[in-house]
Amino acid sequence: MDKKKSPNRSSEVQSLTRALTILNKLSNNDSGLILTELAQICQLPTSTTHRLLTTLENNRFVRFNRSSNLWSVGVQSFVVGNAFARSRNFVPLAKAFMRHLMDEVGETVNLAAQDQDEMVYLAQVESHEIMRTSVRPGSRVPLHCSAVGKAILAGMNENDRNMIIQLEPDAPAENQVFTPKFLENLKKTQVSGYAIDDEEQSIGVRCVASVIYNENGGPLAAISISGPTARITNARIPTLGRLVQKTCKDITAEFGGRLPLDINRPLHATGTKNASTLNNALQLITGGATKKTRSKNS
Question: I need a labelling partner for 241 at 20 to 30 A (CA). Which of 27, 53, 211, 215 fits?
């Protein structure tokens, strides 16, 4: 009796799949691997691994250091990867996901990116509702009072976040933006995976946002769902938060980005380690550290 081939593997070329597996494993080991280690990791016979490596070496996808006997990724792999980077057009890619999210939730979906201590709106997919929010591409909002801005702040590493905090000019305590309470709320954002603008930017409007990550695990942009408070109720926010977070994860993967957890940085969805880095920011404020003011000439 003939064995039936699995439908999802019937069209695969085994040797090509094995060669790609070798490349993927080498890409995760910057210092290189010896032949036996690589064969073991790929779960392939040593002879097969060597044959595939030789073919890849001839085409410069891998290289072999004869003094150390280590195999590593070759220059042609960089050339191919760089072609992908050149072909990435971020906004059209994101808008396809944004349209799907708008259809799913029925509310306006926005894309924004950071520019120093502000967020710049890049694109929007408007709701079909008569009462809906609208923002012009190119419009700017402060980081601290927008859902997209707070999502970016929560996704930043500690050093970048502290640089933003120190941009705030000296002001009386009642006028300060980055207060201990604000930073405590960022911790909650890191745990939940989404940020909220509860009528901070516009009266009667709520927004829920999450982060798209770049290839280094840093915040690239943010996606938000925005609408009137009558529709974006407190009871609905957790559901919208999960949906916008999923959309951002999907865009991150499609764009070639990496979640912080994938590169040994804490992911805001787990919260524990990444939230703990905010303790230093809290100490920066409560300890009365000197803040850098904006240059008048900038």
Answer: 215
For CATH 3.30.450.40, the residue range(s) in the chain are 88-286
CB 217: neighbour CB atoms within 10 A? 21
Chain centre distance of CA 19? 29
251: closest CA among 292, 285, 293, 209? 209
Sheet-wide strand order for 140-142: 140-142, 118-125, 108-115, 219-228, 205-213, 195-198
pLDDT at 290 over 70: no
CATH of region 14-86: 1.10.10.10
Q: Rounded to whole angstroms, how far apart are CA atoms 279 and 160?
A: 14
How far is it, in rounded angstroms, from Cα 197 to Cα 228? 12
Q: What is the DSSP string of 173-232?
A: GGG-SS-HHHHHHHHHHHHHS-EEEESSSSTTEEEEEEEEE-TTSSEEEEEEEEEETTTS
CATH number of 88-286: 3.30.450.40
